[in-house]
């Protein structure tokens, strides 16, 4: 999570959001050693206290930008995901992990706390008690444990992870692009509010799918017993 990486990640998000042809996104670490090992401690060693605070804020803003990508985002956790690396995975919509992967929010072992969304997104995903246990102990967990507590949606052998994730991304991308964007918006916005307000958000998002040609194509394809061809319009 160096400054250069954050700059590149924000640029990637900008390009993704400007491309109406994209229907799903996969985030994966290069190689097979780490998904993302977290903060660049070598870079941070030479920072002032204020610079550290500003950098962590930048990490948090970047991960929120990832979370707000309009299309579904899948994290392929192909190796270690610690600190900011796990916070990056938490900002994605769905998480798949290699069986060999290790992950955790280890910040308290360095006398700090997760500051890029970890204390907020993790409890919402796995529950308050489990989140506190992971954050307070700072102990990493393996992929099997992550699956058991709901931190990841699935695990697979490392050599099969890329293909499995791409299969999932393709299955998502085959569905209506406008519907996918609106479903993501309804879930993300609705879970931050009350049930009644969430139902209103859902209804508003649903209405945006009605005037689309894709909706008519879906009905026609169903009648003709063929796969629909969606255009995102």
Your description of this structure?
This protein is an alpha/beta fold and 233 residues long. Helices cover 55% and strands 12% of the residues. The strands form two sheets. A four-stranded parallel beta sheet has the order 1-3-5-8, sandwiched between helices. Strands 2-4-6-7 form a four-stranded mixed beta sheet.
With strands numbered from the N-terminus, the spatial order across the biggest sheet is 1-3-5-8
Number of strands: 8
Global geometry: globular
Radius of gyration: 19 Å
Largest beta-sheet characterization: 4 strands, parallel
Binned strand content: 5-15%
Our measurement of the CA-to-CA distance between the termini, rounded to an integer number of angstroms, reads 37 Å
Average pLDDT across residues?
A: 94
Class computed from helices, strands and strand pairing: alpha/beta
Tally of contiguous helical segments: 11
* Parts with pLDDT < 50 across at least 5 consecutive residues: none
Helical content class: 40-55%
Helix and strand element order: HEEHHEEHEEHHEHEHHHH
